[in-house]
Amino acid sequence: MQKTARKYVKTASKVEIKSAHFLKSSQHYSELPPGDKPEFAFVGRSNVGKSSLINRLTRHKGLAKTSSTPGKTQLFNHFVIDGSWYLVDLPGYGFARVSKKARVGFENMIRDYTTRRQSLVTVFVLVDSRLEPQKLDLEFMEYLGLSQVPFSIVFTKTDKVNKTKLQAQLEAYKATLLETWEELPPVFQTSAENGEGCPELLHYIAENIRLLDGLLPPV
Ligand code: GDP
Predict the structure, then answer these.
(1) pTM of the predicted model as reported, rounded to 2 decimal places
(2) d(CA 66, ligand 1 centre) in Å
(3) I need a surface site. Which of 5, 42, 81, 173 has the fewest CB within 10 A?
(4) Rounded Cα distance, 206 and 209, in Å
(5) What digits encode the pLDDT tens for the residues 84-113?
């Protein structure tokens, strides 16, 4: 029993991405690539550290473009990982000066994507670990929960906060969630700077793919 557990941990620490390449950008639901692989989406407020984390996870410095500018067309970017799953970089939300048209476009696309995309396994909602719970993030998680879309919370930039403060901050965040939720979704603490949490995140993805094996609907 103990031997199996140890073997499991050893495997977990070894999970890493071997190949990653950009497939396509889509502005509308109809433009998405065929849902022929399990997909994992990354979303969060602009500047949360999404591109940096994707680049760290894939060990591919320029894969996701960092510091995207507000007002640009909001695209869903599909990346093929190890030929077996899609990492989807969703547009950042919460730009202060984004036009109403862009906001509505984003909301429609997110709604279509999260409710219709059968190959979507889970959404990773990125949250800056230095900030108090933000209304926009909480509302987005509320939306996912009510729509029964599986999601996890990924705290970013943990290297920027000292350990004691970080734990207090995360506990306060969880307490806020538990005011409205019965249980917490999976939570990850990550840093694109020092790689904290990346093996855990990749292991979680690998485990989900393993469980899904053969269960995806045909396209
Ligand atoms: P995005 O807009 O969500 O894609 O955010 P970016 O990945 O472009 O990151 C925004 C800023 O935060 C950039 O200046 C990054 O260098 C910085 N950043 C992102 N992740 C981390 C991290 O884990 N640690 C630190 N110290 N800085 C980070």
Answers:
(1) 0.90
(2) 7
(3) 5
(4) 5
(5) 999 999 988 776 666 777 778 778 889 999
